[in-house]
Each structure stands twice: as C-alpha cells, then as structure tokens.
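note to self: dont lose this again. the chain is below, predicted strucutre after it. 414 aa total, dont forget to put it in the shared folder this time
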Amino acid sequence: MDILRFATAGSVDDGKSTLIGRLLFDSKAVFTDQLESVERTSQLRGDLYTDLALLTDGLRAEREQGITIDVAYRYFATPRRKFIIADTPGHIQYTRNMVTGASTADLAVVLVDARKGLVEQSRRHATIVSLLRVPHIVLAINKMDLVDWSEEVFESIRTEFLEFATRLDFTDVTVIPLSALAGDNVVRRSSNMPWYEGASLLHHLENVYIASDRNLTDVRFPVQYVIRPQNGRGDYRAFAGQVVGGVLKPGDEVVVLPSGLPTRIRAIDTADGEVLEAYPPMSVTIRLDDELDVSRGDMICRQHNQPTVTQDIDAMVCWMDESELRAGQKYAIKHTTRTVRALINEVQYELDINSLHRSQSADSLGLNAIGRVRMRTTQPLLVDAYRRNRNTGGFIIIDEVTNRTVGAGVITDN
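---
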C-alpha cells in the first residue's frame, strides 16, 4: 500500500482544518477519546456544533484564537491508500510554515471560500505550490452550502482559477465543490450538487496516480552519515542516507562526488536487512567495494549521469524573514546534506503574486515575497534543476547569526 502526502493551503478561515477534521471523522480515523475532547472543547467555547477543526489545531493558542499557526501532521488510512496530511496555516505571517508543509507533498489541496472566491493569499499559496513543483493540485471550493449550492458560483471561481493556473506550472488541476462543515463531497458524493459529476475529495485522493512522480532515472544518493568500523561491528563501513533519485542495486558501477572516484556497490542494507534494490524515498546504508574517502555531503551517482557541480546558483526564492534579502548579504545554504556559505550577488526580479508580473526594478525581497536571485557559494554544490529533482534542486537559506531559516529556494534550469 503506497503513501500519499498532501498539504492544505489557502487563505484564513477557508476551512482547511475543518476539511481535514471531516476527512478524519468520516473515514473513521478518529478515536473516541479524541472526539469526546473535541466535543467538550466545542461546548466550552459555546459552539452550536462539534468543531472538527480542533482535531488538527493542537496548540493552545490555535484553539483559543480559532486559527492554525504551526503545521499539523495527521495520519490515516483507507483500504486503498495511506495518507500523511499537512494542515498548513492561512495567515500571511505564517507563510513559512505553509512552505514547510508543501515542500514534501505529492498533492496540494488549495481551499477557497465560495463566498469570497480567489483572494491574494489563495493566489500566493497556489504560486508557492507551483514553485515547489507539487505534482498534483486540487482546488476545493468550500462552503458551497453558504451560496445555496450554486453551480454558477462554482463555475465562476473554477474559470478564474484555471485562467490563473495557465500562467503557473501545474501537472494537473482538479476542481471539487464541497462543504467541509456538512461533509458534502468530502468522503461521499453530495446529493445537494447534482450538477457536479466528478468524484468526492477522498475518492480523488485514493486514486490519483503518483507512481511516476519520483525521478527513477537519475541516481542521487547524498551521504548523510559515515558508519565507521567500531567495537562489535568488525570491519563494517557504510554510508547512510536517503535515496532521492534513481534505482540502486548491488553490483552497480557508481562514482562518488566531488572526488570523482569510481567504485561498485557491494551491498545495500536497511533496518530489516539487505535489499536487492533501493529507490526514493528509501533510507538505506550503502557498502562499497573500495575503501574511498567519503564524507557527509558527498554524493553517490552514475558515472555518465551526474549532477551539475557549480558555485553559481540561479534560484527562485520565497523569503520568510522580516529583514529584507539584498545583494551583498551573506547566508548559510543547506542543500541536501551539505551546508555552505553563500553571497547574494543579485536580486533579478520580484514576482507579483496577483498578476504574476516580474518587477525588474526590485532590488530586495521582503517578508513573504517571491523572486529570482543569483548567488555564489564558497564551495561547489551538486545540483539538478528543481523541475528534474525536488531534493537536489531545492535548498534553504539560514541566517548564520540567529540560525533561523529565512528563505527557501528552488534552482532554475535557465
């Protein structure tokens, strides 16, 4: 049984937490004591209904304010598939948390309120989802019960979003009208919208095809940890990490970068013993035929299929800090398992969230801004274009003084 990771996104009060609560409740993924706690809290707050959003809003501040602040991860399963949900905040000041939740998602559910239609934060989140190359997107038009299940309202928002989406980079877009509060079209088809002939949200999540989304062509294995011979291990020496691209098998000829030294894979181990192949996103340890000098941050790949080795990086950056990003500033860059220092050479343009216009006159990026940046690192990085590999094409920017993550970047291919 495979696993689908999906994230919710959208503006404030569009119903993201309520939608996930409804998914969990209607799919029988809620324990009795959890439901009793939610019912009790709803009564104490004076709600006339059981607020299913409380199933994901776990922080006390979230419950008191009725908002989502941090990313809440929830797990559930149906007979067809397992799911990992990232419930992300809608407030603009928590955009960084939304980026975190969407960065590893296979699918994103962007919610809009049927009464409000697309708002700036909806467009911002859709743009970020596109930037992060989330392969599949669902536009969930929520609160259809508050617009009398109107097909005209649905079609108007659907048309507006699809026109906006043509200027972004989505593999496929599915539009579903629903009511998270009442449960219409969440787990089961709704009789209140006979004009809608598509599937419910859960049916779509269960059946969306994700097997071809991961790159199984380009072998990429960033070394995370070197396991050296120790007491009780004899001469066991291996390299631990996560496969982020391609398929590895014992006997394969590989090369270790940046040294460029060739070798063969002797064996591949997991916590359950040796395996005959490893593929994304498996975490494994690899034993090599030769005693090579391999360190954290090195990468194992094919001799004739290697990442680009470069110190000059062109990237689209989502800036997450109140202090602006400007040319001449220095930061730490964490890319796969390697951390290096970098100098910002140039802010090339800022992207307008609403019009997708490129402002060439911009010389800085403020909080929640998205723009293209050119930088130079102190040491070479082993990179691919983000559209080819999300792991080797993405990085985070860290303020060396505060150790805060201040930005996230995706490497462009032009």
